Amino acid sequence: MTEVFPPSGRPKPFRTKADLAADHIKQMIMSGRAQPGTKIITRVVAEAVGVSDTPVREAIKQLVSEEWLVERPHIGAVVAEFTVDNVRELYGIRAALTSLALQLHPAPLSGARLLEVDTVLEASVVAIDSGDVAAFAGLNRRFHSLICDTEKSRLVHRMLVGLWSKTETAQRGFRLVPWRLPKSHAEHVAIRDALVEGDIGRASELQYAHEMAALAALIEVMEEER
Length: 226
Known about the structure:
By secondary structure, this protein is mainly alpha-helical. The protein contains 10 helices and 2 strands. Strands 1-2 form a two-stranded antiparallel sheet. The relative contact order is 0.14.
């Protein structure tokens, strides 16, 4: 069958100094170095990235709009809380959209896109074996982008990209539930197999269940900690 998934090789976008500062702050948050409630100090970030204060301020504004940070009166920008309500809402939306993206493109996964998916899955095994949560989190997003970015689901994928910018706190989530890594990978493999077989309905159901399993695990741990 003709390969129907669009080519994924796209030129990397230009990165501004504000983008670099935003990436640094995100990494601080996702690595756990900046816990919820931690104030983001402009000068400290500027020195770490090697830029002036201005692009850092721009980055902070961007991250506030994406809900990574919140502005506190008389304090400034601090790392947003990772609440149960936020997790439930965001994962619920993500589950619905990723499931819909698969339904909109009822064709088997094959060709170059399948090879890319398999490469991601192989790298995921390495990340799991080495306990590299950060690497697995990146591969997790790449897997879902590969299967959801099709010629018939472009709008849904754009919505997901915006949503993923708010839910990249999943890396913090994986730190909370590291035992989910092999389970998450097994679920990815099952979704991949269903797509290859052309059983789109099954793949969509598995994708929705996958997001709900991640949600349930996160909420359980967060409620225990609270």
